[in-house]
Design goal:
By secondary structure, this protein is an alpha+beta fold. Helices cover 26% and strands 50% of the residues. The protein starts with a helix and ends with a helix. 12% of the residues are buried.
Length: 152
């Protein structure tokens, strides 16, 4: 009788543990979808798209743009000085490589002059609430699609 009771108790505990693992797996899947890890965006066209990143600091504002046209890309940095009101910019050109949701940018020309160390960015393409984002893998900066940004 003891063996049967211990056996039922063992299988009941095992079933309860398996059920909690299933719930935990569902929660992890939802969190990964929110972060953009488990999304399958291979069919999303990013050709002729413009992505924007705006950073506001005490003394200046940085506006960065990535314009993608086919396999070519333009990366623009605009610095706005709050004290003087002056703006300066750097225009980099280069190319991109896309593998599934990863977009790699290599900009090796600064205003049509080759630079010794290219500007590189590795970006993760994500979609949340029908808005496309590029998330910088290294800095976690979020670049938003300009069309989505200008709608709001």
């Amino acid at each position: 009788m003891k063996k049967i009771f211990i056996g039922i108790l063992f299988f009941g505990a095992f079933a309860a543990k398996a059920q909690s693992y299933g719930t935990l797996n569902e929660i992890l899947t939802r969190l990964e979808d929110r972060k953009g890890i488990n999304q399958h965006l291979e069919n999303v066209n990013i050709d002729n798209k413009k992505f924007v990143l705006i950073k506001d600091f005490e003394d200046h504002t940085e506006r960065d743009f990535i314009v993608i046209k086919g396999k070519d890309a333009t990366y623009v940095e605009v610095f706005d000085d709050k004290a003087t009101g002056e703006s300066s910019s750097n225009v980099f050109t280069g190319d991109i490589i896309r593998k599934k949701n990863i977009v790699s940018l290599r900009a090796n020309m600064l205003e049509n002059k080759k630079i010794p160390i290219p500007v590189t960015k590795t970006l993760l393409l994500t979609k949340q609430d029908d808005i496309l984002y590029l998330i910088d893998v290294n800095t976690k900066d979020r670049w938003i699609d300009e069309l989505s940004y200008s709608k709001k």
